[in-house]
């Protein structure tokens, strides 16, 4: 049972950890720049409270400065599992991320995609929900209105 939701039955992941080639585009992006995939995942898991760019930058800075971005990203895997009542599997989240960081990010990306999220734009079109003060004339227009 998942401690975050008493009585909730745990579900299996929609794809396996080693099924990266189910989405070759994401696999390539994650291999070249995992901070992009992490930012997309964090944007959804955080429900938009921290932007994709900010989350990706934090992850990238942790990776560049300590090489231990896996300790940060495993927290998001745990939150994703709690949100969707997903099984932990044979290994704890921190071990999956420390040993198979790129595979774990790809699996989390596919899980959210299979649940209907468009990870390219997050949960919503930010362009239409963003309200900027008039004092920012250099900000690009969304072409609305």
From TrEMBL:
InterPro entries, A to Z: PLAC_motif_containing
Major localisation: membrane
GO cellular component: membrane
Keyword field: Membrane, Transmembrane, Transmembrane helix
Subcellular location: Membrane
Protein name: Cell number regulator 1
Native species: Panicum virgatum
């Amino acid at each position: 049972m998942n401690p975050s939701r008493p009585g909730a039955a745990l579900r299996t992941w929609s794809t396996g950890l080693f099924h990266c080639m189910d989405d070759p585009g994401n696999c390539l992006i994650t291999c070249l720049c995992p901070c992009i995939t992490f930012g997309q995942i964090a944007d959804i898991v955080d429900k938009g409270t921290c932007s994709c760019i900010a989350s990706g930058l934090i992850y990238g800075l942790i990776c560049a400065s300590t090489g231990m971005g896996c300790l940060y990203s495993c927290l998001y895997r745990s939150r994703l599992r709690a949100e969707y009542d997903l099984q932990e599997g044979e290994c704890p989240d921190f071990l999956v991320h420390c040993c198979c960081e790129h595979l774990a990010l790809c699996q989390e990306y596919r899980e959210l995609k299979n649940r209907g999220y468009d990870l390219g734009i997050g949960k919503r079109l930010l362009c239409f929900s963003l309200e900027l003060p008039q004092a920012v004339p250099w900000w690009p227009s969304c072409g609305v209105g």
